[in-house]
Amino acid sequence: MSATQAPATLIGSDLPRPDALGKVTGAARYPADLIRPGMLHLKAVFAHRPHARILEIDPAPALAHPGVVAVLTAADVPHNAYGLIEEDQPALCGDVVRFEGDRVALVAAESAEAAAEGARLVRVQYEDLPPVFDPETAMAPGAPLVHAEKGSNVVFHCPIRKGDIERGFAEADVILEDEFQTGWQEHAYLQPEAGIAYRDDEGRVVIETAGQWLHEDRRQIARMLGLPEEQVVIRYAAIGGAFGGREDLSLQHLLALAAWKLDRPVAMQWTREESIIAHHKRHPMRIRCRWGATREGKITAVQATVIADAGAYASTSVEVTKVASLFSSGCYEVPNIHVDGYAVYTNNVPTGAFRGFGAPQAQFAAEIMVTRLAHALGLDPVELRRRNIYREGSLEPTQNPLPPGVSAGAVLERCAAALNERRARSDDGNATPDPFIRRGVGIACGMKNVGYSFGFPEQATATVELFGRFEGERRARVRVGAADVGQGTHLALRQIAAETLQLPLEAVEMITDDSAEAPNAGSASASRLTLMAGRAVAEAAAKALAEWRDSEREHVVSTVTFRPPRTTPLDPVTGACTPNYCYGYAAQLVEVEVNLLTGQVRVPRVVSVHDVGRAINRQQVEGQIEGCLAQAVGYALLEDFQVKDGRVVTRYFNNYLLPTALDMPTEIEPVILELADPNGPFGARGVAEMPLVPFAAAVAIAIHDAIGVWVTRLPMTPERVLAALAAKSEGMQETGMAESALAR
Amino acid sequence: MIDRLDTRETESVPATGEAATTIRLETVVNGRPVSAEIEPRTLLLDFLRDRLGLTGAKRSCDVQVCGVCTVLLDGKPVSACSTLAYEAHGREVLTIEGLARFGELHPIQQAFMERTAIQCGFCTPGMILTTKALLDENPRPTREEIAAYLGGNLCRCTGYWMIIEAVEHAARLMAGEEDRS
């Protein structure tokens, strides 16, 4: 194919990933593969205690060790406070440590072994302070303060008020209450944190590592070092997974600090244990809620209290709490809503971004409550959902109309059709040939914002260059600082550029992984890059092509910053605002098999329905759905992250159980609807997080269908399933329930 | 009080610079004889990565549960992070770098590319080598046999579905049943 021949269409094609060759041959370079002889090796000294005052740090024994070159402490950090939203975390603790993974010193040595030995030899004298591990205890007056200067452990309170909650419950024929608890979740990206840093010939400090947002890493590191941002360069190597876990700085700033202070190339890699204790997790949440509905199947009121354990530092807890609060009433239009969300500091591991970002926790509770309401009203759960589900123009809890492109009903109907098909072909009984296995089926819906919310500045910039004297010579270079964490965004953006420019894929070069060479497209998070970076690339490409055709120039450059419709901050009293400009909608059908003897739950089949607007690369969309479902299986059933007295118990993958090929459903049916989003490039909207949103609830609903008990804690381990069964056989009502059916 | 909770500080680990006994390792890596003086405690993964520059095997879980560091030792998959380099003495090691021959991809590599059984790619070298051991033992495995054999190789991105399809595809390619183009 010559460069002049435009491909029929690149959008929707299963084009092979350009990065696949390096990944199957071992040639791809991940951060730890960049380490070269002659570099200094860094090792952090971790606090290994939940809350203490640092009395003294004595580096002398470490410095006396052969090979140790330097021990850096808080005094070496020019601006010793960082964070994505709030600067409440020290790079190296100077006065107080607030969780076991806090770093108090950084040892640099000529070998990794000498650095490790040096880190063991740094003598830190502590005075232990009273810790607090439970977020509700931390909210009580007189609780030990994690950040004494703040005067309270409440990081953020998110109130959402809509309608009149008293009237909403007065109008209800049925009112149900329950409490739900969700667990921490570890990202468990297989590539542990690693990287190198050095000063280049222009005197800039260069950090080569993995992350989710080049320019935000650069901003935070420049601020820490007191340098102009141009003096800091972030480059991403091949990134071994992220899932939100690389959104916060982990060791990037420590690499930068050492390279800057010592003026030598430095290298650092975390062990798995260091990664698990030191990087943030998914928020555990406690959700108490009360739902009311009329006999006619109209949900009239939702009241909820959401308490999120933020751990020792804020990270993105404020934003996660807003998202969880917003979705406390699920994807249903409810006239009367009263939600109070809280993010609370504790001396546990910090929590932050993780695929789903607060939506899975909230909708685990919401979807179970909707199902229980249907049961209480004698209605089909699909029918109750249908009567209340978001439509075009529905008012959100924040009192604004939903952004156009509401497909909640469409995904529900497609999922309901799958349920009907299943009912038509099986007798739908719970029994199986094995007398101890019961079968059940559940359906749940979910939604999640695409892109940044609540007034957080949202934009993406791309530059497209076109070269060539005449059409047959035309080729392009796309500069867009968007991280490919494995999801395949570089290929999707290249397809969008090539399609817009009417060029074959090979004629489009991508520059994506250098903060000095590619403009800021924002983070690889919030399922946003296909829409945001995709729009910026599409517009810059269209503009460049028009300019090239209108001029005689052999090289045109066009830069476009795409800004979606504006969102607005929450009103501090009512929560009123325009929270988001786009949502992804999902519905799932889940079949389970529950073992009555062991409590073990298997998921033989999942139908996962998603409106993706437009699949730019269908195979990659399916990859996102299947991969996200694996994490959802872990979240719902297996991954029991345990913290005892501030110490992570599950510090390795041998006691933190991740789904293997054997744990996956034997049948996964991804259903991709393409109902165009008004803002997306070619109509595309994001999909990466959505499969995690309804899944845990769908499993819980299927378990209830199988054995008649509700499991309200995540993960739904065999122990919890058996406990729920035992409570039922002891004649108690279904576990964890206080319900009252009020006659009007 | 001067202490740290970490009990590992009590372990006595000979540090760099101290005189350490070495032994001679004679092995074959990717078809080439290798002879090296190593400390007895040297891990195979460190030997491959740091001494031979073969970084295709990755460090991930450190405790032999994730399969990311898998290499083949006399054709059998082992976790290089938990195998002493000396265990390769007199034996043959195959890493991902040695799989393609004369510039031509192995059918398993081809199959993983064609079925997009790759996202971040960090598990891919270990997954491909485990697949090779499987298909050498059992050229036509069922899906259940594939899932069971790959049960020691974690992937956090793909959900395994496309990997299992790639293994089935590779089995067909190796049996000459499908055009490799």
Query: What's the CATH superfamily of the largest domain in chain B, by name?
Result: Beta-grasp domain
Radius of gyration of chain B: 19 Å
Proportion of residues in β-strands of chain A: 15-25%
Total of helices of chain B: 5
3D shape of chain A: globular
Number of discrete helical segments of chain A: 17
Q: Low-confidence stretches of chain A at least 5 residues in length (pLDDT < 50)? A: 1-7, 733-744
Number of domain modules of chain A: 3
Account of the protein in words:
The complex is a heterodimer of chains A (744) and B (181). Chain A is 27% helix and 24% strand. Chain A is of the alpha+beta class. Chain A folds into 3 domains: 20-29 and 459-562, Aldehyde oxidase/xanthine dehydrogenase, molybdopterin binding domain (Aldehyde Oxidoreductase, domain 4, 2-Layer Sandwich), CATH 3.30.365; 38-129 and 190-241 and 246-278, Aldehyde oxidase/xanthine dehydrogenase, a/b hammerhead (Aldehyde Oxidoreductase, domain 3, Alpha-Beta Complex), CATH 3.90.1170.50; 179-185 and 281-453 and 572-740, Aldehyde Oxidoreductase, domain 4 (2-Layer Sandwich), CATH 3.30.365.10. In chain A, the strands form 6 sheets. Chain A has a 7-stranded mixed beta sheet, with helices on both faces. A 6-stranded mixed beta sheet of chain A has the order 7-15-14-13-8-26. The model of chain A is unreliable at 1-7 and 733-744 (pLDDT under 50). Chain B is α+β, with helices and mostly antiparallel strands. Chain B folds into 2 domains: 21-98, Ubiquitin-like (UB roll), CATH 3.10.20; 107-174, Orthogonal Bundle (DNA polymerase, domain 1). Chain B is 28% helix and 14% strand. Chain B is built from 5 helices and 5 strands; from the N terminus they run ββαβββαααα. Chain B has a 5-stranded mixed beta sheet, with helices on one face. In chain B, β3 and β4 (76-79) form a beta hairpin. In chain B, α2 crosses α5. The model of chain B is unreliable at 1-15 (pLDDT under 50). The chains are: A alpha+beta (744), B alpha+beta (181). The interface between A and B is large, with 76 and 63 residues.
